[in-house]
Structures are given as C-alpha cells and as structure tokens.
Amino acid sequence: MIDREALHRHLQELLEADRFKDYGPNGLQVEGKPVIHKLVTGVTASLALIDAAIAAKADAILVHHGLFWRGQDGRLTGWMKQRVARLIQHDINLFAYHLPLDAHTSLGNNAQWGQRLGLVADGRFGDQDLGFLGPVPDELDLAGMVERVTQVLGRAPVMVPGDGRALKRAAWCSGGAQGYFEGAIAAGADVFLTGEISEPQAHYARETGVAFLACGHHASERYGVQAIGQHLVSRLGLQHEFLDIDNPA
Fold first, then answer.
1. Ramachandran quadrant class, 181 (left: phi over 0; alpha: psi -120 to 50; beta: rest)
2. SS3 letters for 111-151?
3. Could you tell me which residues come within 8 angstroms of residue 125 by beta carbon, excluding any fewer than 6 positions away?
C-alpha cells in the first residue's frame, strides 16, 4: 500500500509531467481514498472502466485519457456526471497522464509499442519530441510490417502503401498522431505508424512514397499504462490489474 500523495509525487517525477504542454491536466484528477492498496490501469476513464475497477475493488485508477480536456464545457452533467459520481461514491482516485505517458523513454506508449513491434528508437521528432524514429529490422518489408502489427495488436491496420520502397527507417507515434506524418517524412522515415488516419495523409503517402499505417488509437495506446502499473508493483508493492475495455477506434 502507499499514501495517495506519495504515489502522486512518484508518478509526477517518473513521467516528468511538469515539462509538458498538454490538452488537459496531468496527475490526480479525482481525489479518493488517502491510502491505496490496489491500482487498476486502463486506456480511458470511461464509465465501463470505472465500473470494472469498482468490481475489482480498486482504490485508484490510472489512465492515459482522463476526464478533463481543454475547451470542455466544464459542467458535471450527463456522461461526465455519471463518471465523476461513480468515482466519488466509491472513493476511488483517478490519475491521468496524457503526453507524459506517450513520451517516456522506456515505459511510455511509444517505447512499449515499438518494443512489441521490434522497433528500437534512435531518434525523436515532432512537437515535444513525442514521435519515435528508428531502423526497421532487416527481415521486415511492408507486408511483413503489416503482418506484425496485425499479430501484435490483434487487428489489421489501415494501410496506404507509398511507392513500394524498401523500409529502412520507421517513425511511430501512438494514438491520434496522424498530424505528425509530415514530420516523419521530413525526418527520413520510409513508413509511419500511428493510431488514426485523416483524409490528407492518404495523399501525402501517395505523393511522397512513404507508407502510412493507421493501427488503431486505442490499440496502440494500451501498453504504457501496463508498464507503469508493473513498475509500481515492483517499486512500491502495489497490487495492479490492467483492464482492457475494447474500443474499435
């Protein structure tokens, strides 16, 4: 078990949360029990995850996508009221780390996703160095990369193939980072992997020859919270359970 504030301080320091300009508050978003025995991790602070954490008898939840984002209305009505009310009713702490959890060099989403794909970063690119860049293993052509993504994530990516060039350098950034594609191209990537694709990226891929793989926002961001949870088990002795609430996006 650990004191809530001690856990908060540990996470803030581990993820260097204060150095990021983010779209919402990182850290403790909803205050619950002062002492934490069991932590549940998940991708998004949805009602389904909160209810699953209650069933798992969690004292705290750690997510990548929290409740509060820049530009929101701010009123506790509808779905927001339901989520917050459930947390408060059961006295559960909610911790959320967005960009800090993407960027961590070993425990973050990009580092952990890359590790599962056999990609090791030797460079960074993009805003706040969120994008990862590294060599493609010799055995992987584009078809092999698609097959590996499918095996690792359990879903086939949306693929725009580019010009069929050999894959020497890969760039990747989990989640909704399709806007990083131009930066990946400028950084010398032959293939870019992220969670989502928007209309312009198909044209960029065709016109530049750099392949684009949209692998799923949720699917590509399941790994950072798991790694953090395992870290907290080994370092702080917390009980930990990862709960994967399926999401087709």
1. alpha
2. HHHHHHHCCCCCEEECHHHCEEEEECCCCCCHHHHHHHHHH
3. 131, 133, 171, 180, 183, 184, 186, 187
Do the beta carbons of residue 109 and residue 228 sit within 8 Å? no
Question: Is residue 177 domain-shared with residue 84, that is, in the same domain?
Answer: no
Give residue-wise pLDDT tens across range 39-64.
999 999 999 999 999 999 999 999 99
Domain containing 229 equals: 2-103+221-242
Among 79, 90, 15, residue whose Cα is nearest residue 53: 90
Give the integer Cα–Cα distance in Å for 240 and 238: 6
Q: Please tell me whether residues 142 and 229 are part of one structural domain.
A: no
Whole-angstrom Cα distance, residue 200 to residue 126?
Answer: 18
Same domain for 122 and 99? no
Q: How many domains does the chain have?
A: 2
CA 90 vs. chain centroid, Å, equals 26
Quote the CA–CA distance of 29 and 244 in Å, as a whole number. Answer: 20
Residue pointed to by tokens 């069991």: 38
The residue among 159, 132, 163 whose CA lies nearest residue 145 is 159
Q: Is there a domain that residue 248 lies in?
A: no
Which pTM was predicted? 0.96
In this prediction, residue 216 carries a pLDDT of 98
Assess whether 86 and 125 both reside in one domain: no
